[in-house]
Amino acid sequence: MNSPDIPSSATLTPERPHVRLGFVALSDAAPLAAAALRDMGRRHGISIELCRQPSWAAVRDKLLSGELDAAHALYGLVYGVQLGIGGPQADMAVLMVLNRNGQAITLSNPLADAIGRGASVKDALASLGRTPVIAQTFPTGTHAMWLYYWLAAQGVHPLSDVRSLVIPPPRMADALVEGTLDGFCAGEPWHAVAEACGAGRTVVYTSEIWPDHPEKVLACRRDFVALYPNTARALIRTMLEACEWLDSREHRVEIAGALASPDLLGVRRQLIEARLGSVTGVAPLRFFEGGAVNYPRASDGLWFITQYRRWGMLDAALDDAAIAQAVNQTALYAQAARAAGIAIPDETQTATLCDGRVWDGRDAKAYLAGFAMHA
């Protein structure tokens, strides 16, 4: 177990009554915005200070320095730091999943037009006559992994057939307008912004790559959990309440207005609401659904490690499953969720991705060995 049971005599008063939460300007920061603006932490003994960050690298650096207590973070960012890939290593913790789905890949109009006329993605990219440039948001992040996985499924090698750049999400649409990019993979509302600018069109939603994939998590350093376990539980309780509040379409419309603020996303409400407001369809952002969204299943983290190995980002002989069990705070989450009367989903979950490969986390080595395209 990655967190001990709560002693019966323990006080549940948070050790840190004021918590600094980092976020990047994305629609799926909605749980943090709802929790802060509606003061949902009060009943759990905490106040929340939202701290907007310009990039995922800034989120990482401020989590490590202690300037942030916790953050809305890319699932893969947490694992990249844990494994020391491309930056400093630190023991990290995933407290809960904040959302599933809701990301996309947008390509320039010429590429989107070619695909719309029936060209394969591989042929459309080749028609440029040069190496396509497609951006993602962090080297080990979810968007890099969705982009790589989708390209490989289309017969395009993501490391040699395209040039992949890292750009902060709020810069994506502008870079596409400027012609710096041929496409990008990121979160909303930046795809809606790109389409509104006439610069490109969404060609695939990430829920079409991995239906109900894990996306952003509530993350912190593992020593924060050790030092302030009651605070960590209070944070989970607060974010579960916020995620549940967002299950309502009316509440999503409401929070879209708040997210439009310059202090949060600084994007027109209509563009945020267009893709955040829907609770059905091909790419619905899922925030709660009875807690089915939020359980930090260790196999989800393990999947990212398989992809780092697939693409040559990690070759050390490690106990990958044990790392995922240590990072994902399943016991701590269960304590908080049960206290809120929220059911704990099954540990094992099967997912079929866009290439037909099935992931269930039980044999990661065999899963990894089954990929025809790799580094």
Task: Report what the structure shows.
- Helix 1 crosses helix 12 (249-259), helix 7 runs parallel beside helix 8 and helix 12 runs antiparallel to helix 13 (269-276).
- The strands form three sheets. The chain has a five-stranded mixed beta sheet, with helices on both faces. A five-stranded mixed beta sheet has the order 7-6-8-5-9, with helices on both faces. The protein has a two-stranded antiparallel ribbon with strand order 11-12.
- The protein is of the alpha/beta class.
- It is built from 17 helices and twelve strands.
Structural class: alpha/beta
State the major sheet. 5 strands, mixed
| Total separate domains | 2
Strand adjacency order, main sheet: 2-1-3-10-4
Topology, number of strands:
12
CATH fold label of the largest domain: D-Maltodextrin-Binding Protein, domain 2
Beginning-to-end CA distance, first to last residue: 34 Å
Name the CATH superfamily assignment of the largest domain. Answer: Periplasmic binding protein-like II
Task: Report mean pLDDT, rounded to a whole number.
Answer: 95
What is the level 1 CATH name of the largest domain? Alpha Beta
Percent range for helical residues? 40-55%
Q: In DSSP terms, counting alpha (H) and pi (I) runs of 4 or more, how many helices? A: 17
Assess the beta-strand content as a share of residues.
15-25%
Q: Give the overall shape.
A: globular
State Rg: 20 Å
Order of helices and strands: EHEHEHEEHHEHEHEHEHEHHHHHHHEEH
